Amino acid sequence: METDPTLTAATTELLQAMIRNECVNYGTIESGEEVRNSDLLESFLEGAGLDSEHYESAPGRRSVVARIEGSDPDAPSLCLMGHTDVVPVSRDGWDRDPFGGELIDGEVWGRGAIDMLCQTAEMAVAFRHLADSGFKPKGNLIFFGVADEEAGGVYGAEWMIANHPDVVKCDYVLTEFGGIPTATADGTALTLNVAEKGVAWQRLRVKGTPGHGSMPYEVDNALIKAAEVVRRLAEYRPTPQIHDLWKVQVGNLPYDADVKQMLLDPGRIDDALARLPNRGKARHLHACSHTTFSPNVASGGVKTNVVPDSVLLEVDIRTLPGETNDDVDVHLRNALGDLYDAIEVEPIHDSPSTSSPIGTPMWDVLEAIMTKAHPGARLQPSLIVGGTDARFFRLAGAVAYGAGLFSPSVTFELFSERFHGHNERVDIESLALGTQLWIETSRQMLDG
Fold first, then answer.
1. How confident is the model at residue 256 (pLDDT cuts 50, 70, 90)?
2. Residue 57: CB partners within 8 Å, gap ≥ 6?
3. Cβ neighbours around 36 below 10 Å, total
4. Contact 401, 214 (CB under 8 A)
5. CB 32 within 8 A of CB 24
6. Could you tell me if 63 and 145 are in contact, meaning their C-beta atoms sit under 8 angstroms apart?
7. Per-residue pLDDT tens digits for 127-185
8. I need a surface site. Which of 26, 89, 140, 197 has the fewest CB within 10 A?
């Protein structure tokens, strides 16, 4: 695939500036401050004479939308969507300033370099290049730089679709993350995410009876009961689901036939995962085939010498395709047993698993372009075990894929290590390939 050094340089510079804006999302309404990256992108796009608009869901929580109007209202429309916020960092774990945006040995360092400021910058540069070159699409082309993806999209994509649906309405959405070269038994596969697990975060309130800490014998201590709740959730082993995407994924794994057979057998899959030498890979594969429960937050107690009468636990639950809230409740009952009646369950965040079909014109366009950059490779439909803003658009009726294009040096293992990790960085070759992907996809899909 031919790339343009000038566009690559523009993408690199824009990515560096976005990293330096430090739009860190802590999950509170006051954090994020995506207005900094929104204003940066708006200024960048206005340089091409494009009309762009910004939308503020809360103070500082700003998203930007720009469009190139199509000539045919019946033609398919496309939205290039990239988020502008990043997750927090532990600075002690970094070898460089996580918000320095430094270019070192052909790589841009900084929080968001992989997730997903790289692709947001690529999309903006591609969008402006198309405008500069006089691109006249049949269908609308939309650029959407969205806030708050890293905390569930409440002040970003979800808010936009609820409050300004016509502004971002489209037939196809491309967002994070795909195009990662993955070794398989039959050669290289390029991931294209077509589905993602559901989110069913729960707050569990464990009740007890207050008392004096000097007399703990046979007291109803909420903290002790909460510890048992956590233990049971950690040890809970739900039945795995051998869904269609899992079958495709297992078929592409670089393992021998016996291991693959075990991974497709609900009674043996957990044994197979336990034997895999790469524990990071095992964790990912487990999440692709199981509903997962991760107790991640605990709070309670008022003083060292007071027996606590209430403890709150927050549990990250991720559901598989087809599961409902009733299924989540059954899981909790099965996991907690007699303790279930001793707690109060409050949903924190609820979003079902979503998916998009594979046999679409967009799939065909992406397959032709992405495999051109990696000759001999093929597209592999994948399930995201986390969450992205694609789910809101799927629920609104759009086909949404997690796409992208990374260089051969960015393996799945390397990508996973840097995603939300220390020393996050991305290579210039990947920025070049990604920018070209969005240009060619927009041209071919919208038939300008």
1. confident
2. 63, 147, 148, 155, 156, 159, 160, 163
3. 18
4. no
5. yes
6. yes
7. 999 999 999 999 999 999 999 999 889 999 999 999 999 999 999 999 998 999 987 77
8. 26
Q: Which amino acid is at 385?
A: V
CB 232 within 8 Å of CB 336: yes
Q: Radius of gyration of the chain from Cα atoms?
A: 23
CATH of domain 5-184+353-446: 3.40.630.10
Alpha-carbon span 206 to 195, nearest angstrom: 34
230 Cβ neighbours under 8 A, 6+ residues apart: 295, 298, 313
Q: What is the CATH number of domain 198-351?
A: 3.30.70.360
Task: Give the closest residue to 402 by CA, choosing from 363, 359, 351.
Answer: 363
DSSP state string for 99-128: TS--EETTEEESTTTTTTHHHHHHHHHHHH
With CA atoms as reference, report the closest residue to 22 among 133, 124, 111, 143. 111
pLDDT higher than 90, residue 422? yes
What is the rounded end-to-end Cα distance, in angstroms, of the chain? 20
Are β-strands 78-83 and 141-146 bridged in parallel, bridged antiparallel, or unpaired?
A: parallel
For tokens 């799939």, what's the residue? 363
Structural domain boundaries in the chain: 5-184+353-446, 198-351
Rounded alpha-carbon distances, angstroms, from residue 252 to 260, 368, 417: 9, 20, 21
Instruction: Report whether 12 contacts 446 (CB < 8 A).
Output: no
Tokens 């038994």: give the residue. Answer: 185
Q: How many CB atoms lie within 10 A of CB 332?
A: 23
Phi and psi at residue 290, to the nearest 5°? -135, 150
Amino acid at 130: L
What's the CA gap between 355 and 344, in Å, rounded?
A: 32
8 Å CB contact between 392 and 175: no
Question: Which of the 8 DSSP states describes residue 154?
Answer: T
DSSP string over 365-416: HHHHHHHHHSTT-EEEEEEESS--THHHHHHTT-EEEE-----TT--HHHHH
**Residue 147 in tokens:** 């806030």
The SS3 call for residue 332 is helix
